[in-house]
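Quick one:
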Amino acid sequence: MMIKFLLWLILFVLCWPLALLALILYPLIWLILLPFRILGIAVGAILDFLKALLTLPTRLLRSL
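Output:
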């Protein structure tokens, strides 16, 4: 967290318009990418469920 802040301060001193643009655009880009993160979590959960479902007979037979 502190490193990001220090890098932003260096960017602000060297090129303040670019730093302000980055400060404004970061939350907007995060909001645009949020549905893709949620979709990735959902797809990962579905794939984990299918893996558990397909390996269930093997795990049941191994426990006997």
